[in-house]
Amino acid sequence: MSHLLKNFYIFTGKGGVGKTTAALLFAQYLHEQKNDVLYVSLSQQKLGEASAQKPAQNALSVPQLFLELEDCAQGYIQKKLGSKTIAQWVVKSAYFRALVNMLPGFGYLISMGKMLEIIHESQDKKILILDAPASGHALTMLEATKNFREIFQSGLVFEDTNKMIKKLYDPNHTCVRIISLPTELSLQEAIELKESIQTLAPIPCKVFLNQLLSIWAEKIQDLPAAILEKVKLEESVRQQFSGHIDGSFPLVLEHKLEDQFQSLKPFMEQLI
Prior knowledge:
Largest sheet: 7 strands, parallel
CATH architecture: 3-Layer(aba) Sandwich
Number of strands: 7
CATH topology: Rossmann fold
Radius of gyration: 20 Å
Distance between the termini: 8 Å
Shape: elongated
CATH superfamily: P-loop containing nucleotide triphosphate hydrolases
């Protein structure tokens, strides 16, 4: 299994499909397999805005990191200028904040640089599981490095984005896992996102259906009519898009993440 693992797993999908839970449980699964794993979530990607709420504490043992954009920006500038004081002043300045907030994707570029740096500093031994933004924003995040390489034709930012692209777009290093509900609308959006990403770069992408009733329905008899109808709709969608679906996860009723993990653990390997 280890030879199939990537260094950077990006989880995304339409809002409300369960991508955060999928990313966390997959990170826990790899952690239990004795891999050096870090689950990462991001703050808002504009400076000066109220930060996204940090994920609630849970009983999972996998290491977790909440990346604040301002901290990432300050760390980058400090490394380039060699001064923490100057870096703090630059990040707090109105000009820098306006620059980051005005250019679409600049915040993602800064955060992406930090994540790839974490992997690089581990000598490519660490596996990052990113709970990425929802579909459109995730595409903007992946496009950002390429866009800013074209904007900055020379200098430090240009050189750094070139280094980032070599890793981020390397199919042996990075992959995307798109989570979808078993509905036509959600799945169509997931497929379109996959096509857009693969037009951008040769990043391996897979689409997974989440919260399926039909997986359990095969083992249960005398289901209510409403549930049977839901199962029929799921099966219709699965057949219609069979060539685009790479795996599936059943609906779980447990509320605690640690209990969900035990139920879904047998399904986790397909995310590799």
